[in-house]
Amino acid sequence: MATLGSGDLNEAVKTPVDIEEEEWLAVNTIDFFKTTNMLYGSISEFCTDETCPCMNAGDIVYFWVDPPKIKKPVKVTAPQYINNLMNSIEDKINDTSLFPEDDREKFPKKFHKEVKNIFRRMFRVYAHIYTTHFEEVQKLGEEAHLNTAFKHYSLFCIEFNFLSKEEFEPIATEMIKILGEDYRPLIEKKKKERKKSFKLSKIFKKKKDE
User: Fold this and answer.
1) How far apart are CA 156 and CA 32, in angstroms?
2) How do residues 36-81 score in pLDDT, each as one tens digit?
3) β-bridge pairing 60-61 and 64-66
4) What is the pTM of this model?
């Protein structure tokens, strides 16, 4: 799949030796949030309550939950889900107790958990775009831009172990095409793993929350 010339992204995702890991995660969380928001914005006119009545990636449906405001998972349209998600992430980024502005302040103990959850949820935006709106992306001439941004994002997630193979599954094929065959063992479940999860597949296909 087409990508833009973007240097060695494998090295670009690694924490520099002169930067604390928390600081590296914070800076990249903000950058990936802005990029993901911009990419979705480019196809948002095609993603409406009518065209996308649920937030899905193929036959997997993601339900919205945002404790303590929304404790029970609720089904919402894709644009509603993504709008809720982007607002939620922005609120977290602007929370100085979670993302300190002063270099002298320490990151909270829950920082890694919160960042991991942000990346897990942002993945769903890419999954929805690739499974539902990729034709529109191609017509707009944005395929290489999307693929390059997603490649960078995916390598970052793999570097910090933010997502599981189960979460990659909806667009595992696209990920392997973009990242290369060397990444197949990190992305795709083995046959034995697929057999073990077969009994739970109906549950996972119907509902994903958090």
Assistant:
1) 10
2) 999 999 999 999 999 999 999 999 999 999 877 888 999 999 999 9
3) unpaired
4) 0.89
